[in-house]
User: Fold this.
Amino acid sequence: MSLTMRQHDRRAPQTGRRLLHGLSGATSDPTLETHLGRWGAIGHREFGMLEELAASGLVGHGGAWFPVSTKWEAVATASRRRPVVIANGAEGEPASRKDALLLTRAPHLVLDGLALAASTLKAQQAIAYVPAASIPIVSAAVAERRARRLDPLEIEIFEAPDTYLAGQESSVVNVLGGRREALPSFVGLTSIRERGVGGRPTLVQNAETLAHVALVGRFGAAWFREVGSPGSPGTMLLTVNRPGNRLVVEAVLGSSLRQATGLQPEEIAGARGILLGGYGGGWVSPHAFCELPVSEKAAGRAGATLGAGVVAVLPREVCPLAEVADVARYMEGQGAGQCGPCTDGLAELADALERLAYGQRSAPTAERILETCDLVEGRGACRHPDGVARFVRTALNVFSEEVSLHRHRGPCPQIRAPRMLPVANPTAKRRLVSGS
Amino acid sequence: MSRWSLELVIDPIACDGRGVCAEMLPERIELDRWGYPVVAEGEIAPAVVDHAVRAVRACPRQALHLVERRC
Assistant:
């Protein structure tokens, strides 16, 4: 039976609620029995999956928006050695919770996608790289699958450190290869897809992306394209952060971003700015936000990115420059400290932004800060400095009024308000949890 | 028909800003305010290739690479 015929499967969701289908309230439990009852069995096949992924138009939801089929093709054709496939559950963005939600409430959907990658690419090894908090549930899920002999090979579990860069592709390969802490490598001359873990071709795919793969594998590309726009089909998870509240929603690509987030017009009108994509993302004004569709292209035109789906509303009660300065300092601390321009540049940016937010005088001009942004962009082994540059640049633009007020009058009264954007700085070491 | 071009690539992890490259290839490389090299965009003109190769060999950190890219 051709995969495209599967769209008539009675279990295929007919609305834009796909990954979150069946996950509301008390009825959701992460067991295999519930999972199979909800979605049916997944059939492994050697042929057709790559074509189906290409036809689906599915892109990665770890933040880079790279076409999934292109990545799989590159791994499939890289060498004769059998590849390593990895479900990347490290969710480095502190304001993102969507991968954690999937791993703890629908772990089998992610593991189905990983198993499909393993069978399609004839993998040597399949690894779930997940944060400590998700390990008990993912371990239990892997045990259930083992008991049912569901997968072509045993899925191994590794703990992802709780750091910003732990999910960066080459960091993942370094942790799993046992070479170093979760720090990126320079990959300008080689590719992880060709030579990754143990020198094998390696697929590192975000957890949400693999959950979408699981549904494309079951219901086919034509079903996948039933929602969204032709150029940008399907859905994505968003983590919506508002004061005192964080919620994961599923948004149809191309629909209204405001409606998808469930934010009320008065909430948006009362906001100072809205952060899209996380700390490596960008700020947009409340007005611009209302006009945006759920679209990476449109977010890019607005100077931001949807990244891994973070949306954070900054209310009037907080000082936006203090929030921006604290995040910049956090991002400096989360840098690997390996590349000179990023190490020096991010420290300079954090200093400048702190003087702007907290200082009484001698705050640097916005022009000087923008110059530093230009200097760090594209100068690292990974995209860490690029993300910070975008975050700062868009902040100076959206909060330009606050910048000039601070430069002339010093700190604002809102400085005493508690920070809204989380900037925890935990440390965690690599640990082998199960598997070989 | 595809064409190949030569480009300079810096490994920013290996580079520690000694500045040798900027001295040897000022046509293409200057140093930023922290002393790290910034490579001008675009392919290396045939007349400059020899200088570029010498700069690559001279880097004490082996952080400068000359790569062929299909364009």
The first helix of chain A runs from residue 32 to 39. Chain A is about 40% helix and 15% strand.
